[in-house]
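#struct-queue
[09:14] JT: dropping the first one here, sequence first, then the C-alpha cells:
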Amino acid sequence: MQIKKDEVRLKILEVAADEFLKRGYENASMRIIAQKAHTTQGNIYHYFQSKEILLEEILLPTIENIECMMSKHIEGEKANLMTKEQALKEMKEIEHDFDRSKLGCFFDKKVIILLKLESSHLLARKEKILYSLTEHLQEYFNINDDSHYSEIVLNMLIECVKHVLIEHENLNDAKAEFFKFFNVLFNGIISQIR
C-alpha cells in the first residue's frame, strides 16, 4: 500500500513540475494537475496541503543546491580577479565537463520554474540568488556597472537557459544550443577584461 502512495505522490510532483514549467506557477491549475496525475484535487491536498507546499517540494532542493554552490564558488573566488587567459581556460573547462561545472546546477528545468516565479514566498530567495549572481559578475569580471551591464548579461544568460531547456527535450541538444550562445556572450565579456 505504501508503494502505491509513493507512486501517486511522485506522479503528482512530476505532473505539477511539468505544469509549472509550461504555464508558470501562478497559471497552473490544481484541477488540471489532478486530471493529468489521474487523481482528484482532494487527493492532491491529502499529499500537499496547498499549491505553495507543492511548489516548495519541487523547488527547495534545487534552490538549496544553487545557494550552496554559489556560496562555495563566490567565497572561493573573492578577490581573485580573472585575467583573459584564466577566463578562456575556465570557459574550456566548463564546456568540457559542464555537468560538474559551476554552471551545471543551473541547467535544470526546475530552475526555469524558479526564474518564472512571480508570486510565492520563494520569490525572496529567487531575488537573492539573482542579486548575488549580478554582484558576482561585477566582481569576478571586474565590470564597472554604471550601465547595469552585469544585470543585462545575467538576464541574457537566464533567457538563454530558459529557451534551450524549454525548446529541447534532449538535454544534450539543449546544452549544445546553450554553448553556441554562451561562447559568443562569454567572449564578449572577457574582451572587456583588462
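[09:21] JT: and here's the second one, same format:
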Amino acid sequence: MLSSDFVTGPVRAPTLADVASAAGVSLSTASHAFSGTKPVSTATRERVLAAAASLGWTGPNPLARNLRRGRSGVVGIAVGQLSTAFRDPAALAMLDAVSEELDAAGLGLLLMPDDEQVGVPLDAVIYDICGRETWGAYDELVARDVPLVVVEGPAWPGATHIDIDHRTGAAALARHLHDLGHRRVATLTLEASHPQREREAGLREVFTDVDVIGPSASDVATAQEAVGLWWDAGHAATAVVCQSDVQAAGVVVEARRRGLDVPGDVSIAGFDGVDLPWLDVELTTVVQPLGEKGRAAARAVLARIDGEHTEDVVLPVHLRVGGSTGPAPTP
C-alpha cells in the first residue's frame, strides 16, 4: 500500500480563485487587487498578495489579459535591415529602453525590417532607425487603425512623433569648431533623412560652404571608405564633422592610417554620445538622450494603445568636448 505521504497525481497549479479563497475575499476583489482597475484597501491588497505568495501564484497571465481585451500584446518596431540593426550602439541603447518600458507593461516587442508589409496582428508600431521617407506598411497600418509612433522620422499624419533637437546640437558643435579657428570644414553625412537634413542645416548655420562627404551608413568600415575616397580625390579640411559617433570612429581610424594626427592635423567630431571603449580618444560629440528617447517612444505607444491623446516630443541635446577636436592647424 502506498504511503499517504506520496502524491499519486499531477499537482494542479494554483489559480486566482485559490488566492481569493486563501485571502478570504471574492474572486473579483482578488482580481482588482492585482489589476488596479478598481480601488481596493491597502489591508485587503496586502492580504491578497500574501496569499498569492504563500501559494506560489505569480500573478495574471499578461497574454491572456491582452487577448481578453482584443489585443495581441505585441508592439512592432521597424529597425531598417535586421542584418545591420544591431551594429549601431545608438540604436541598441534606444531599443533597450523601449523593451524595458514595454516589458514592465506586459507587452512584447517584435523587431521588423522596414522593407516588408506588416503581416501579424500588432497593438502598435514604432518606426525608428530607418531613414526612409516612405514606408509601404504605413498605408496598411492607417487602414487597420494601428497606433503609430515615429522616432526621428517623417512627419506622417496620424502618428505621434518623438524627436531630438538635431539642428541646435549641430550648430553648437559648429560654433565650437569655429571658436577653435576652423574655417575649412567637411561633413560626412548619413543617407537622406530628417536627422541628416537637420544636422546638416545646423552645421551650415556657422559654415555655409561646408564640404559634403558621402552619404555613408553609420558603420566604421563604410565611413572609413567614404572619407578615404574623399581624401584620395585631393580634398582637404581642418575638421570633419560626422553625423554619428560610429562614422567619426571610422574617420579617426582612416586618418591615423594615413599618418594624420587627431586632432593636430585634423579635428574629428561625431553625434550621439555613445560609448566606444575600443577607440583610444574621446570623441567630441553631440550627446542625445538615447534612453529617454526610447522611454518616450514606449510611453507614447502605451498611451496610444489606451486611446489617450499624445503630444509630439522634442528632446534636448548637449555638446560634449573630447580629445578629438583641437585648434585648427597653422598653414
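[09:30] RK: nice, looked through the second one.
[09:31] RK: The CA atoms of residues 123 and 284 lie 40 Å apart.
[09:31] JT: good to know. The chain has eleven helices and twelve strands.
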